[in-house]
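Bench log. Compound arrived from synthesis this morning; before running ITC I wanted a structural hypothesis for how zinc ion sits in the protein. Inputs:
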Amino acid sequence: MKKYIKYILITILILLILAILIYNLLPQKVAVLTYHDFVLSNPENNMQISLSNFEEEMKYLHDHNYKTLTIDEFYSYINGEINIPKKSVLITFDDGWKNSLEAIKILKKYNLNATIFYIGSNLNNENFMNLDDLEYIKNNYSNITIASHSYDLHHDDSYLKDYDYLNNDFLKMKEIVNTNYFAYPYGLSSDNYVKVLKDNNYKLAFTFGPNKEHKKASKNDDKYKIPRLNFSTNMSLIKFIIRLKLPY
Ligand SMILES: [Zn+2]
């Protein structure tokens, strides 16, 4: 009986070593974490996360030595110009909700970088950050990059618009945010979108949203269809950690 247990333990150990070897041989992938709206109390929908839950996740990244890439670093990596540590992530916020201002305090506290994809036409909407807020971030938060989530294409059918319509929107956005990085509203892309992005010298565009694959990003991805993972919703820390560690 004792011998039997010994064989089982040795087999488990060998399988464990093999699993670790295989895991380390897999091509490197980067989790692009996507958040939307932050709330102080209980979230009312699955696009909201409480600030306490968010802080727990950011503390985990900090305490476990994750590198939070700037979007420029992420681009350089995807473009094959630099190597990055295996434990690297890119943190992104969509829409530019007003309470992003609270979330970035947490990022600063843990010395983490992030990118906010802002919707230009929301600058007079009190639920979203305004131009003063963007200027304040620029001057006080060197860890935060502001990028584009379009000027006014955050509508279900915008991705179906023709080249000129999309291009005009990009020209309007240029007056508000100077960037080369874009996140498609609702993650919906089109050939016209990609043409407009390239003609306006955008370097990366990120997908997200319903009916889209949520997976980690790699160098093999189309630069104009970089996948992201949904972290916008309250989840247990264990689930957060597992999602980070999964190889896809
Ligand atoms: Zn959005």
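What the model suggests: The chain is about 40% helix and 15% strand. The longest helix spans residues 2-25.
ITC booked for Thursday regardless.
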